[in-house]
What we know:
The protein is an alpha/beta fold. The protein is 26% helix and 19% strand. The strands form seven sheets. The chain has a six-stranded mixed β-sheet with strand order 11-16-15-14-12-13, sandwiched between helices. It has a five-stranded parallel β-sheet with strand order 3-4-5-7-10. Strands 9-8-6-17 form a four-stranded mixed β-sheet, with no helix packed on it. The radius of gyration is 26 Å and the shape is globular. The protein starts with a helix and ends with a strand. The chain binds alpha-D-glucopyranose (GLC). Residues 48-49, 110, 157, 236-237, 378, 427 line the site of alpha-D-glucopyranose (GLC).
Amino acid sequence: xxxxxxxxxxxxxxxxxxxxxxxxxxxxxxxxxxxxxxxxxxxxxxxxxxxxxxxxxxxxxxxxxxxxxxxxxxxxxxxxxxxxxxxxxxxxxxxxxxxxxxxxxxxxxxxxxxxxxxxxxxxxxxxxxxxxxxxxxxxxxxxxxxxxxxxxxxxxxxxxxxxxxxxxxxxxxxxxxxxxxxxxxxxxxxxxxxxxxxxxxxxxxxxxxxxxxxxxxxxxxxxxxxxxxxxxxxxxxxxxxxxxxxxxxxxxxxxxxxxxxxxxxxxxxxxxxxxxxxxxxxxxxxxxxxxxxxxxxxxxxxxxxxxxxxxxxxxxxxxxxxxxxxxxxxxxxxxxxxxxxxxxxxxxxxxxxxxxxxxxxxxxxxxxxxxxxxxxxxxxxxxxxxxxxxxxxxxxxxxxxxxxxxxxxxxxxxxxxxxxxxxxxxxxxxxxxxxxxxxxxxxxxxxxxxxxxxxxxxxxxxxxxxxxxxxxxxxxxxxxxxxxxxxxxxxxxxxxxxxxxxxxxxxxxxxxxxxxxxxxxxxxxxxxxxxxxxxxxxxxxxxxxxxxxxxxxxxxxxxxxxxxxxxxxxxxxxxxxxxxxxxxxxxxxxxxxxxxxxxxxxxxxxxxxxxxxxxxxxxxxxxxxxxxxxxxxxxxxxxxxxxxxxxxxxxxxxxxxxxxxxxxxxxxxxxxxxxxxxxxxxxxxxxxxxxxxxxxxxxxxxxxxxxxxxxxxxxxxxxxxxxxxxxxxxxxxxxxxxxxxxxxx
Length: 745
Ligand code: GLC
């Protein structure tokens, strides 16, 4: 940004009164910051969220305006984007989201959420990207760049350690320094230093006893001083709890869920605190400066304002981008005996005596028709449309195939309270975890028995239908009653007795195609019996089309799991340590050993491993070549960490009969090290598209940081001399070729 804005910013500040400055530092609407209109300074229009631009609320009410002008593109969740392992999808998604936000007149989109998926039960996992910090870095950077090309600020969230929803406003988190630096900060650091995010959102929780909104270690020493961040920090809604301490930390804009805007901590109380000499004017000025700097960057102010991107929403281009990402996000977990793809012959009518005989496809499970856009919490979206799986199937197959549906399982209705306000209005009251509701009253027991009866009837109906069909497709999984902000799941099982149903369907037809739509892993006790399993994260408005294109082979699935799927929740280290979902204090005792870093260390086999995903074709790897460059391991200053250090090349051949894409994953193992390191860690990857028989050489580069670990003594990432393993394959559990390099110092 040109420096002269700094001068102009100083001039503006010199002209503002204390009251006017304070006005800019807190919400004057639920999603709008205060303006100083008489001096030409607008308020910031913010909006959720990661899956599209949220519906419009009045300035001071959680009752949506409910006009017909805020239907929007319903984007794939970050989990779906990550499952593509394709930075181009992340960029395209960010670009569309930024344009939609600008089109809706927003200045800040409160996205992307990138908290590490530390435990499968976290309610907001669907909004986040991965368990692996490197995969997060590689996807969050293009996504933010795409957003900000539309002259809209990304607001990367939630900084930091917001890895559970249970009691998220108050839970205190403790993590050792090495784990903080190697796992929980890299995504945010890349967002700041590589993507140039214009804003960042502090998390609700505490870190080392201090709320993230007032945490000087996170906000001042790490974010501002170490990372040189000069953007805006926006509080999570209602995450500010004090005036003085927060003003003295580098949090700039207080937002909340209440409408007493003048009483916000950064409103009148801040003015009074400055007047009493409790808060320094220079701390106030620094916040105003950060906000004004962002306004200039957004072309809200200054000579470039006339050229600000105008944006657009609900365009064909956005819909196509969503469909492409949805296609690449689908993960084929299992496919035996070529159950998939469903070939045209299997659904073609057979000649009959008089009329041809239609083939019948039984589609079983509520997620075949359920629409997910309107749930999840602040990520809720008023989707212009959402193609469900059964809609995708029916529009694809047309009238010459008999597609029949049965819900298969029963979802107890929620008591709709017509007077209920948006859940968020009361979200600041000390949150009660779902567990507190587990006591069963007599009325609940009666309801449970009715549910059990309904489930049995529905299961029998579904099985009968399955027996009558040529193809059976189960579409189950979770929904935003379970993948939801504010709560964590109590267990990793499929709800609504789906497991019994899947078992019964597999009994009725062993070739039942099991598809799961969900935002976080589930236990699949029937996985060895099922021949075909397709996993779909919430993939946005085009899910049903992409889902169908994959099932029928028009699209060859290329998704890879961005997180481990444990066989059972009790296999996770966070469960074993009892350090997830606690109400008051969570200590990350596992350190860096969680997810695949834990399973590989302890020899625990997950149901499906990090990076796993099959294709309708097969790929061969050959000719791995690894070269350590002269600067490998030479780290004299932080910049040296980003220098290319190891060149990896490998040939990939499509050895099958159909075109497809493979994600070449490169893992590094540091076999000689003074500290314990994981068996291996993802440090490079590339997606390659190949025609049948085609071979391409994939070239990847690992930088020094890819070899380094964080040394708490020297407070820096260091590379130790010695042997390193370089492992290349199609999944963390499918290493095709390995090589060694030796670094001498
Ligand atoms: C919510 C969420 C945050 C969201 C904000 C505004 O509580 O934690 O992700 O952007 O408040 O709705």
